[in-house]
Amino acid sequence: MKHDPMATANAMAATVAFIAVVCALAIILAPELSLGVAQSWFHGIDLSKMRMAVNPSLGSLLYGWITATIGGWVVGYVFAWTYNWFAPKKK
């Protein structure tokens, strides 16, 4: 099975964009819960010193969303291209 690099890249970008929106909403609406979840993902490292003093601005959220979406697209494209390169050729 081959992956279409453009379709895979678009799907990855859409997935990352969705996750970024959910994450931003979680940070704004439930900052303590978000910090607890992030801390659990980093195996208990104390992230409390990195707590934001103010909520992120709309501009910084938009910038993060755009760059994360672009990064997701690049990762999706590279994944599909690399997968196709490694996948055995069917005769």
Summarize the helices and strands and which ones pair or pack.
Layout: H1 5-29, H2 31-41, H3 58-86
Helix pairs in contact: 1-2, 1-3
Keywords:
91 residues, single chain, mainly alpha
Would you give an account of this structure?
With 91 residues, the chain is mostly helical. Helix content is 71%, strand content 0%. The protein has one domain (5-86). The chain contains 3 helices and no strands. The longest helix is centred in the C-terminal third of the chain and has 29 residues, at 58-86. It is elongated. The two termini are 12 Å apart.
Mean of the pLDDT scores? Answer: 90
Into which percent range does the helicity of residues fall? over 70%
N-to-C CA distance:
12 Å
Low-confidence parts: none
Number of domains: 1
Question: H/E series, N to C?
Answer: HHH
Describe the largest sheet: none
Radius of gyration: 17 Å
Count the helices. How many? Answer: 3
Strand content: under 5%
The count of strands amounts to: 0
Overall shape: it is elongated
Structural class, by secondary structure, is mainly alpha
How is this structure best summarized?
The protein is an all-alpha fold and 91 residues long. It has helices at residues 5-29, 31-41, 58-86. It has one domain.
